[in-house]
Amino acid sequence: MNVMEVNHLKKDYGKIHAVQDISFHVEEGELFGFLGVNGAGKSTTIQMLCTLFTPSGGSANICGYSLGKHNQEIRKRIGIVSQQNCLDDALTIKENLMIRGSLYEQDPNKLKVRLQEVSNLLKLDEILTRPFQKLSGGQKRRCEIARALMHSPKILFLDEPTTGLDPATRQSVWYCIDTLRKHTNMTVFLTTHYMEEAAQADHIALIDHGLLMEYGTPYELKEAYAKDRLVLHSHQIKQLETILSTLPYPSQKDIQHITISLTHTKDAIEILDKVKPYINGFEVLQGTMDDVFLHVTGKTLKEEGETNVCI
Ligand SMILES: Nc1ncnc2c1ncn2[C@@H]1O[C@H](COP(=O)(O)OP(=O)(O)OP(=O)(O)O)[C@@H](O)[C@H]1O
């Protein structure tokens, strides 16, 4: 079942067409990756879907409610964690969460129950009485997610939730997101610049210049745009080049290795059979979401600074 349907959504800022014509859907309970380079139109789209900006055109249905007509109903069903922290520095986590929760729930007993549920889910018990400003970056992010969960939303928007965090802290934030998804059927709408995070998504929409460029599962996108590579390590590069020139696979030469683009992973078997006497070792590297992103957004590996020679 779709929890969100977006049809021909547009947003102009004067002469700037930030979102030109975007259509996609999000399934209930899924992790949806919404990707694009800086300025592609991600934040503008999210602001529209969260009822903060009025679209210039198109329509969206969120949790069965029509954007523009039933914005109050939509707001009750969505939570947002934006790039910036927005909890009050001087207040404790408990005070912050109770204040945010009271915007939606007036019964103090129900609020306390919800606070405990959210605290259990995000493991906040030990830091509930500490002021927000005294927490580490990762703890602050977990509290921001808790804030967005206080009214039990059906969809959680996470706009670059781990940008600027060190790898260990990013991992702890992801542990929270995974726990959340395991224990609730919440839909998570994620934007991120980390392709390894995007690869966890159930479906991905890739946008550029305010247009939808690709939509699919990470597997489908990798199949279409990210070729596997066979890397041959050798001290006899010249002989290898001669053999490879008789085979129909594009390759790139470096000082001690040659990288071959494979159409199918099993092509590696035929190649290895032919080059066996001239190699010291080999690796088969799988295509990644980075490859997909670079392909779809128009950048090539060469533009990224590689100096390999095609043979
Ligand atoms: N308030 C605004 N007024 C005018 N132009 C804007 C405004 N907000 C965004 N833009 C422009 O709209 C385009 C899309 O911006 P948006 O912030 O939606 O992109 P983004 O994909 O979220 O980028 P980032 O990853 O950097 O957050 C950009 O060209 C941006 O300069």
UniProtKB/TrEMBL annotation:
Keyword Lipoprotein in record: no
UniProt keywords, alphabetically: ATP-binding, Nucleotide-binding, Transport
Residue stretches making up the ABC transporter domain: 4-234
SUPFAM superfamilies: P-loop containing nucleoside triphosphate hydrolases (SSF52540)
MF term (GO), any: ATP binding
The keyword Ubl conjugation is annotated on this UniProt entry: no
Pfam name, any one: ABC_tran
Family statement drawn from the similarity comment of this UniProt entry: Belongs to the ABC transporter superfamily.
Entry protein name: ABC transporter ATP-binding protein
